[in-house]
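Researcher: Let's walk through a ligand-bound prediction step by step. First, I give you the protein sequence. Second, the SMILES string for zinc ion. Third, you return the three-dimensional complex as structure tokens. Ready?
Model: Ready.
Researcher: Here are steps one and two:
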Amino acid sequence: MLMSRLVRRLLPKLVPKLVPKLVQGVRRSIPRTAMVWLLAGIVALAADAVAARPVVSDVQLATETEGRVVRFIVDEPMDFRLFTLASPLRLVLDMPAIDWRPPQSQLERVARQSAAVRAVRRGNFRGETERIVFDLKNPMKIVQAALQPHGTKFALTIRWQDAASYQAQRFGDFREVPIPLPRPTRASPVEQPLIVLDPGHGGVDPGAVGRRGTHEKTVTLAMAKRLEKALLATGRFRVALTRRDDRFLPLRERTRIARRLGARLFVSLHADSALNPDARGLSVYSLSDKASDREAAALAKQENQADTLAGFSLADEQPDVVSILIDLAQRETKNRSVRFANQLVQTMVLRVPLLERPHRHAGFAVLKSPDIPAVLVELGFLSHPDEERLLLSDKHRSAIADGIVAAIANFFATDLQSALQSGGDASR
Ligand SMILES: [Zn+2]
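Model: Step three, the predicted complex:
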């Protein structure tokens, strides 16, 4: 390990001197093909050593007729990914570990000169990813993000324009670095957190119905089973489903099941439907007294109607004293739910299409458990023909399942961290 690191560090310096001598030295004694392979090996090793850390030498901002351009000048090709995040609006650029040369003030100057950018931060994220975050004043539309030859070097060019509203966008294919999680020991399987998955609707209540006749209740059950499999495969969680077959289940009973079993996280799965035929994308809801917008409020009302449809009443509310206690517990739980919803949106950004403003709030009855963090995931729109087809595809379901599993792993890692920091805020 140490030896190879030393060789990697020294080799780029030695190769220019070494190669001519090697060529002379080995020419007499080694057959030509062997020599070619030997040299190829050395050159590849040297290239690898140099490639270990691309050098970013400059950051430039320019104005073009269509908008603004930021260029990161880098000495060799590298992977990157660029994506937008909502609330607050951010533009995030991830690169591999790099050798960053420009002074920090230059990056800040570039940010100040751009009307859309409020502030900029740069840091090493999880030890392997160099992350630059632009805090934005207004939503922006990324017109282009690409690595192109630039003189003798390369430029990572980002072009943007002002946009009227937020859109989830992503460019580049730099891979996400997984967060290492301690594996639970076999001696204490009981301590593995229990995740309760709640496939929406069922029985007499089909939920939304797609154009091709797909029932929401069928999609949510299939997705819950797919997700259960993926969660169990990690060996880190226990999983329970509120229903495993096509049966009606009152909303209150769904949360009761989670409480009875001692769930540490509750994830309700649904699929959306909208009058607007273009509406599509996954969204995540956390509980709030005030809905984030009219659509969210309408959706909550619609989902909450499941009980009334089947003759159950939502009216048996808690008595006052109890509700004050519940209120206190609920505030803390609400914060954790919001944090999980944010993490879920962030892991989903790179995997599946998202609805604009993908994290929303509303008063969903199924999320009103005072002590269990809970979110409701609207997997997509059955009213959108392409999305209806996607929601039936195994590949798309796997992408969603993998994203949710990554978010859950992340949530429990950071939840533990914030608990250890005695109430400190572990979110970024
Ligand atoms: Zn639903």
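Researcher: And what stands out?
Model: The mean pLDDT is 77. Residues 55-172 form a domain with the Immunoglobulin-like fold (CATH 2.60.40.3500).
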